[in-house]
Design brief:
The complex is a heterodimer of chains A (367) and B (276).
Chain A (H helix, E strand, L loop, with lengths): L2 E12 L2 E13 L4 E5 L6 H9 L6 E6 L2 E5 L4 E2 L2 H4 L1 E4 L11 H11 L4 H14 L15 H13 L5 E5 L7 H18 L2 E6 L2 H7 L2 E6 L2 E6 L1 H6 L4 H6 L6 E10 L2 E6 L2 E4 L2 H10 L3 E6 L5 E3 L6 E11 L4 E7 L2 E7 L9 E5 L6 E4 L5
Parallel strand pairs in A: 3-9, 3-10, 7-8, 8-9
Antiparallel strand pairs in A: 1-2, 1-4, 4-5, 5-6, 10-11, 12-13, 12-15, 13-14, 15-21, 16-20, 17-18, 17-20, 18-19
Chain B lengths: L1 H33 L17 H8 L5 H32 L5 H11 L5 H14 L5 H25 L3 H9 L4 H12 L1 H17 L2 H6 L8 H6 L10 H23 L14
Classes of the chains: A alpha+beta (367), B mainly alpha (276).
The structure holds adenosine-5'-triphosphate and magnesium ion (MG).
Adenosine-5'-triphosphate binds next to strand 1, strand 2 and helix 1 of chain A.
């Protein structure tokens, strides 16, 4: 099923006044796609899911399932959650505590008045898919977090919904279980081929799971694209710092022209730009840019050729396989992710700047 | 360690004092009911025990005591059931629907319940007379339901608001309408709270005196408190023994009710519903 949001806004009216949780969101989730909503806490991700589910009515805009209106306040259209055939795994799991695991998974089928014999078969199928066949007689209270989460997923997939909504389903699992379940979820989604909207604030989850990712902030969608597009060409400094294994470095740089070539000035350093990058910088039409450098692309070397910066190592953290080194330079502190030998604090090092893979933003966009 | 022991001693002494304070009148009641020459105000009350008063209360046809017990149980049971049945959907609406002014509504209900019953009773009497309901169950069940409804609503609202919202949202997504979500999820999950609310409503109705006195004129609908108050001795003296025996017997249904449902009133039924 294809899901479309068109100019969707949602404003809550509460004791603290009007709270605009979602502001003018446009989204299209394609048939069978695993679409991830990524953003910091409070940016409106859960609200978007609730709007898709029909648990909330939008304040304005239109929501369509396969082109058919399901919510449009202007046209007084609202299809109730019951009629939308949407399944959701809640941030809190929301298992029915008075029912055992079988009863929980069977619940949507029983409500739909499916025959008891087929219910037993369907529940067994969903349970075995998630490896909880042994737990059917247990109460939710007796289960571990990982098991509860599986029950919640089983309950969602047991009735073949048109749309599958997942609200941070992995955030309560330990790191190992999270990685395992992530892979499994991806496989399950491929197998069922149900259009899926997946919410997370964890960029690793978004990058590994998503066919496409929408980055949200303050109720707005900032950028939509494949994980690779978001990683390689963030459109805002925020996108750069939110996506990637470590936050992007930002350097203030002046733009000037010399001998017909565009240059950047960082501190005392002058860096000539390749024609490609120069075009990019020209398009911004500004005299000052913010240069976004990924810590994993900056290299430490004893005697780097240009473009390079020199600086003093202020800290070096061991992250296991890699080391995160902070270097104070003329342009500010730069983080460097390296799996080579790490320098010691106080060392003066040279940094090779990966200008070709760097992102350039208008200086005004950096806050 | 010493701190812990001090707390334990305080706790035990406090609990004992509290229990004694509450149970002393009850013990006195049972004692008078079972003594062979009861005189509540006399220090020389006999301590020879007898079952005579109990047998008299149950056996004397003209007292109609067993009928009063049946009336009381039915009237209180119906009132409690009706009050909870009405309060549950109301509490659901207040806690779950985006209703404007739902808090003011709750306080309005509370304000209504503060009217002294005495102020209503004469009008109620005329209304019930006009309806021809005097001396029927309806004459008591209706006002009792109205009387315990605010209390039930407040208690249930507090129970429902403690149930995670995602639980009934899940029910809505699983295909339930609002009423089905209430019936299949909210009520079972809040069952302990609903049971204790119902028992409380039952006890309120069971002990009510004023309405019962004025709205019943004969044994068809008369309840225990009124029945006991109207007990008369043979020669005009107050039959303390029988009164206390009847009062003792009247406690039995309530105690049985609580014991019966105690198993249902287990705490922690929502354990495992959502991650804490
Ligand atoms: N029922 C409500 N009434 C008032 N404000 C609300 C309500 N629900 C959400 N909000 C507000 O809307 C904003 C977005 O909330 P939402 O739950 O969608 O965020 P989120 O991105 O899911 O965050 P998280 O990652 O913490 O779950 C927040 O500022 C929140 O306080
Ligand atoms: Mg959320």
């Amino acid at each position: 099923m294809m899901l479309t949001f068109q100019g969707i806004s949602k404003t809550f009216v509460s004791e603290r006044g009007a709270v605009p949780a979602v502001r003018g969101v446009d989204l299209t989730v394609h048939e069978g796609e695993l679409f991830v909503l990524l953003g910091p806490s409070g940016c409106g991700k859960s609200t978007v899911l609730s709007l898709a589910a029909g648990l909330l009515k939008p304040s304005s805009g239109e929501i369509r399932f396969d082109g058919e209106l399901v919510a449009a306040p202007r046209k007084k259209v609202f299809v109730s959650p019951r009629e939308r055939n949407v399944a959701m795994v809640f941030q809190s799991y929301a298992l029915y505590p008075h029912l055992d695991v079988f009863g929980n998974i069977a619940f949507p089928l029983r409500v739909a008045k499916v025959k008891e014999e087929s219910i037993a078969a369907e529940v067994a199928r969903a349970a075995s898919m998630l490896g909880i066949g042994e737990l059917l007689r247990a109460r939710p209270g007796e289960l571990s977090g990982g098991q509860r989460q599986r029950v919640a997923i089983a309950r969602a997939i047991v009735r073949k919904p048109r749309l599958f909504l997942l609200d941070e389903p992995l955030s309560n699992l330990d790191a190992a279980l999270r990685a395992a379940t992530r892979t499994e979820l991806k496989r399950l989604q491929r197998e069922l081929a149900v259009t899926t909207l997946y919410v997370t604030h964890d960029q690793t989850e978004a990058m590994t799971l998503g066919d496409r990712v929408a980055l949200m902030r303050d109720g707005r969608v900032l950028q939509v694209g494949t994980p690779r597009e978001l990683y390689e060409s963030p459109r805002t400094p925020f996108a750069g710092s939110f996506i990637g294994p470590a936050p992007m470095n930002f350097l203030d740089a002046g733009v000037f022209e010399e001998e017909g070539r565009l240059h950047l000035r960082i501190g005392e350093e002058k860096i000539a730009l390749s024609p490609g990058k120069a075009g990019e910088v020209r398009r911004l039409a500004t005299g000052r840019v913010l240069l976004g450098l990924r810590p994993e692309h900056v290299r430490i070397s004893g005697d780097p050729g240009p473009p390079a910066l020199r600086g003093i190592v202020v800290s070096a953290e061991n992250l296991g396989r890699e080391r995160l080194v902070s270097v104070e330079t003329a342009g500010g502190i730069l983080a460097v992710l390296t799996d080579g030998e790490a320098p010691n604090e106080g060392d003066v090092v040279g940094l090779a700047l990966p200008i070709e893979t760097a992102s350039v933003f208008r200086a005004e966009d950096g806050e | 360690m010493r701190e812990e022991r001090r707390i334990r001693i305080f706790y035990t002494v406090g609990a004992a004092a509290m229990s004694a304070f509450c149970l002393l009148p009850v013990a006195y009641m049972v004692l008078v009911a079972a003594s062979s020459r009861p005189d509540v105000l006399s220090a020389e009350a006999s301590v020879r025990l007898t079952a005579r008063h109990f047998l008299e209360v149950l056996g004397t046809g003209s007292l109609h005591f067993p009928e009063y017990v049946v009336n009381s149980i039915l009237v209180s049971g119906l009132s409690a059931a009706l009050a909870v049945a009405l309060a549950a959907p109301a509490a659901y609406a207040i806690t779950r629907l985006e209703l404007p002014g739902r808090m003011s509504f709750l306080f309005l209900v509370l304000a209504v319940s503060m009217f002294p019953p005495v102020s209503l009773v004469s009008y109620l009497f005329r209304m019930m007379s006009a309806l021809g309901w005097i001396n029927t169950y309806a004459a008591l069940v209706l006002p009792y339901t109205a009387w315990v409804l605010p209390l039930s609503l407040w208690i249930l609202t507090s129970h429902f608001s403690r149930i995670p919202r995602d639980l009934d949202r899940a029910a809505l997504l699983d295909g339930c309408g609002r009423l089905a979500a209430l019936r299949k999820v909210m009520v079972p999950v809040a069952a302990p709270g609903i049971l204790s609310t119902a028992i409380l409503a039952f006890i309120f109705a069971f002990n009510e005196f004023l309405f019962a006195l004025l709205l019943t004129t004969g044994r068809n609908a008369r309840t225990i408190p009124v029945g006991i108050a109207l007990f008369e001795g043979l020669h005009g003296e107050i039959p303390w023994g029988m009164i206390m025996a009847a009062a003792t017997l009247a406690v039995v249904p309530v105690v049985l009710l609580v014991l019966l449902f105690q198993r249902g009133i287990v705490a922690g039924l929502t354990r495992g519903a959502v991650r804490e």
